[in-house]
Design brief:
57% of the residues lie in helices and 14% in strands. It is of the alpha/beta class. It has a 4-stranded parallel beta sheet, with helices on both faces. Helix 1 packs across helix 2 and helix 1 (7-15) crosses helix 12 (194-213). The longest helix is centred in the last third of the chain and has 20 residues, at 194-213. The structure holds uridine-5'-diphosphate (UDP). Uridine-5'-diphosphate binds at residues 75-77, 104-105, 128-131, 154-155, 157-158.
């Protein structure tokens, strides 16, 4: 299981024990968010670079096309995974997208979705149900999925399909992707309060560490 961690994930994990366990047990956690790079540097354990889930997914498709790996796209609104698959097939000729399905993270659908994925035998499963639902979904079902790599990808299928726009590259470079999202989707403001809360938490945790050390 690969998790694409951003500050919202970390703040959520503070008081959601199930999600915290998913993050702790993930096989790989990639830093998807400029805030994580800042925090890691500030806390003296710098990370090399940001790897956005929205960049990882197309990069993976490119690699899959070269190496013959099979992809399954799960989640997003009906029709979006199919459009994302068509775009990826156009961009990476020969990529094998062996299944697409919107479905939902509801428990009632779980058995049917798992059966669908097992039948398709993908090497990589991209799950776009938003965090934390997608990551909990993968964690719960991983033992019976028989998929080597499963990744929670948030809004990535929307971006690939072109139904939602990503921040321009200059904003991404300046670490302002969060600002673009806030402007485009103001309803996220409440969730995005996690960002200042995260910054505060990082600043105070370092002060605590220093006080304990002295
Ligand atoms: N989504 C879904 N089913 C749900 C909830 C969400 O398919 O029950 C999809 C939604 O259509 C979108 C993605 O999950 O494609 C969530 O994107 P978002 O950018 O909100 O992800 P997050 O920031 O939460 O990781």
């Amino acid at each position: 299981q690969v998790v694409t961690v951003n500050p919202e994930f970390i703040m959520r994990a503070q008081d959601d024990a199930a999600f915290r366990q998913v993050l702790a047990e993930a096989d790989m956690a990639i830093p998807d968010g400029q805030g994580l790079l800042w925090a890691a540097r500030y806390l003296g354990r710098p990370l090399r670079q940001r790897v956005a889930g929205s960049d990882l997914a197309p990069a993976l498709a490119g690699l899959a096309a070269q190496r013959g790996h099979r992809l399954f796209l799960l989640g997003a609104a009906p029709g979006v995974a199919e459009r994302a698959a068509a775009r990826l097939e156009q961009r990476y000729p020969g990529v094998q997208i062996v299944g697409t399905y919107a479905g939902s993270p509801a428990a009632a659908e779980e058995d049917a979705i798992v059966a669908r994925i097992r039948d398709a035998r993908p090497d990589f499963l991209l799950v776009a149900y938003g965090a934390p639902a997608q990551d909990l979904w993968i964690h719960r079902n991983q033992p019976r999925l028989q998929v080597p790599v499963a990744i929670g990808v948030g809004g990535t299928l929307d971006f690939i399909a072109g139904v939602r726009k990503r921040a321009p590259v200059w904003m991404q470079r300046l670490g302002l992707e969060w600002l673009f999202r806030l402007i485009k989707e103001p309803r996220r403001w409440r969730r995005m309060l996690a960002l200042p809360r995260f910054a505060w938490r990082v600043l105070t945790s370092k002060r605590c560490e220093e006080r304990n050390a002295s």
